[in-house]
Please model this.
Amino acid sequence: MELKKLMVLTAAFSMAVSITACSSNNNGNNGENAAATTAPADNATATNAANSGDAAAVGDIKPEEGASLLVWESKEERPFAEEMAKEFTAKYNVPVKIEEVAPPDQVGKLTQDGPSGLAADVVLIPHDNLGKAASASLLLPNDIFTEQTKAENTEASIVGSSYGGELYGYPRAAETYALYYNKSLVKEAPKTFDDVIAFGKTFTDKAKNKYGIMWEVGNMYFGYPFIASTGGYLFGKDGTDKDDIGLNNEGAVEGLKTFVKLKEILPVKSGDISADIKRSLFSSGDVAMDMTGPWELAAYKQALGDKLGVTPVPTIDGKKAITFSGIKIFAVNAYTQYPNAAKLYAHFASTKEAQLKLNKIIGSIPTNNEALKDPQITGDPYISAFAEQATNSQPMPSIPEMGNVWSPVNAALPEIWDNNADPKAAMDKAVQQIKDLNNGATAK
Model:
């Protein structure tokens, strides 16, 4: 599933993911597992192994006798899930059933179905939903494979998979955005946004509906580089301090100057830019550059063929562009009857080999350090560009207060873009609204 899309569902981002109705039977065992666990799983065996410091004990973890698993997956990534389930069953003799539930909806569904024993044993969630789930004690920590997970995956993915100093997730894919460009129109990939503006002045023609670049300018997810690259930030202490908000600091305001400059080559109201409109214009050659994510790659390759180029987001005021990133993580339901089997599956389906398979089937960006260096990734001119940008990205904060950010900032950016509002004043207002929401007050 596509991170940007799942973020849009959480906060006005657009994503179309089908959800198949969840079975009323947890693991397909004719209802015997639905005799609900009314308390989180007893994880004593797994915890003792993890705390023993004995590598052999960790390696010897075995599924519970008679275990079977239910895994929630996205519709798009089901082919990968089916392959993982088949391989896991062959190795551990544990049947695995797959059900389609959109990742942004899984924590809400887990909240309802977990205590009754109807939820999946292993869930797939966008990392920014982790705080809500972990703070509600819905997930078991990643305790058995903690050190291995940390050693094998990128720092950003570990940050995204952790909450309150505890590792919960098993990272399996990263998602950020980059700059697509039409090589027949843009002869050389732009290095800076000054380059983008210079090209746009020669190409943009509003009367002909042609534009040098287009992105969803009213969407904070895509606007974050114009805040963070020059020193702004969302929440302090690696996204964990809700009271330290840097969206309106001096660096953020400086970066927003570039945002404002780009209006000259994209003279379009923010509300008139949608993912569908942008996709159509880029595919037809009427937009030369599009800042978006890997979920558009297949369609753009089909539309442009060898004319398609992808490059990291251009620099802003001489600084490397910092984009938002999302981490897709497996997590284990705290109410599972089979914690060992569930943890084994979450680990098994997020290894280097599994992530490379996911990339091959879906086109995802690995979080595993060795997978990122594999020729399958480095030799792909498109995926490698996203992977390069991902190394200069920041995971979206996973604290529950993240949900209070989207509406205020998604109102401030259009005010700046459409109505020439002063960036400092607009962001001051947004920050105050976020603080009010964080403190339980009604934002004004």
